[in-house]
Specification:
With 523 residues, this protein is mainly β. 9% of the residues lie in helices and 43% in strands. Strands 9, 11, 12, 14, 15 and 16 form a six-stranded mixed beta sheet that branches. Strands 18, 20, 21, 23, 24 and 25 form a six-stranded mixed beta sheet that branches.
Length: 523
Amino acid sequence: MARVSASLLAAGIAAAVVLPAAPAYAAAPPTPVTGLAAHPADSQVTLAWTNPADPDFAGVTVVQKEGAVAPAAVADGVTRYTGTATSTIVTGLTNGTTYSFSVFTRNTEGAYSDPATKPEVVPVPALLTKLTATVSAGLVTYGTPVTISAKLTRTDTGTAIGNQPVDFYRKQPGESAYTKIGRLVTNADGVVSHRRLSPDRNAQWYVAHPANPYVGPSQSNTVTSLVRPRLATSVSRWVVEQGVTSRVAVTVLPPHPGHAVMMQIATADGWKDFAGRRLSATSTATWDLTSFTLGKRTFRLVKAADHDNAAGVTTAFSVTVVRRTLRSGMSGNDVLTVQKRLAALHYDVGTVNGFFGYDTVHATYAFQKVQGLPRTGYVDARTYDRLFRGTSVPRLRYSHGGAWVEADLTKQVLYYVRGGAVQRILDISSGSGEVFYVEGDREVANTPTGNFSVMRKIDGWRISRLGSLWRPAYFANGGFAIHGAPSVPTYPASHGCIRITIPSMNRLYSSLTIGLPVHVYRT
């Protein structure tokens, strides 16, 4: 018990007993770290652990020792770290040498814990690696992306190395050094690809893996991608008459103002230079082609290779010079050529004789109706172009056995079909849709639509209250017939019948047999 002052006792004052302060820390040794792990690398080892949660924790000391026996005490080796962190990198080690490590905790009184040990850690050199680069296409047209790919492997075994950074580098004409354009990470197969690269000029590429303690550096081979310019070409007329101009225009991308573009012409001896132009400030050039020589000539445009880009060449294109616009009353080999083409496409051209007569005019009307062209009845460059550039037979709406007739009131044409194939195409004039009066009765000039059949025929003129019908083939109640007429305009003009020309009716009449299906519709 503490001694009390006599003066205080004499004064009769009770005094409190003052005891010494209790120790702030327990007498037990500090708690060791947990989860100690070691990761050897090139000439170094990374150590990581978890510090204890004790309130008297003051820090750790990492001790290193050569050999497989870990340090038993702080003085039993070389101290490599002192502090409160949860990891450290021990560097300057000799690859292939065995090291052991211990981590000791200490408290604020300076006491150390039992060691947490990691014996037999051997630093190893970083893996030697190899990078192989490839390019998706060695030559592309401007605007087309390329992909640069690479594969990272071990030099000794060829095994792929994944999850490693790879840097991509590019150098283009006029650049003295490569430029880094991005970094990507290899996948599990060691492959990395930089996609959607759209260079506007020729380029050289390589990829590199930067060094780290575990995987050594490497640089790939160099790959090259050439970029040819895009030559966007337009031709104002593919078919022109003699002396009429067809304009050819080109735009070159990327822009090359002032550079030359050559038009070449195909000859029996190959391509020959025809006419050159300099690209304008907007990288465009034009040629006006005017010729009095009949026939087809084939051209292409060539942009020569330069410092920045590979050569650019357009696909071949042709301009055909025709003699003239063919009209009624003309004759000649050009008329004969048109007649043969119309007949081959099953238009009712009549006699193929080289004379542009009444039948040829109406066959031309029918072709223009089917093709949606102006219904002029003469063969101009536009009609000629459509006639000789891959024109196909119109698509039918119906399909069944035997023969039948289809009348398209929208296009104002009639198809005679046999065996599922069009045999003849004629122009027609159907009901005008207008109101008219006959013998005091109000009527509307409509041609009925639907599925009918030929009910009766008259082999000659039929004089009706609405006019004269040549060799009518009646297909619907009410007197509706397919018949010949002196007037067959290019538009709907009848009282409801389907008019065709008298010569066409003479050629078609025998095919319009009783019971023949007649399909009338609008498209």
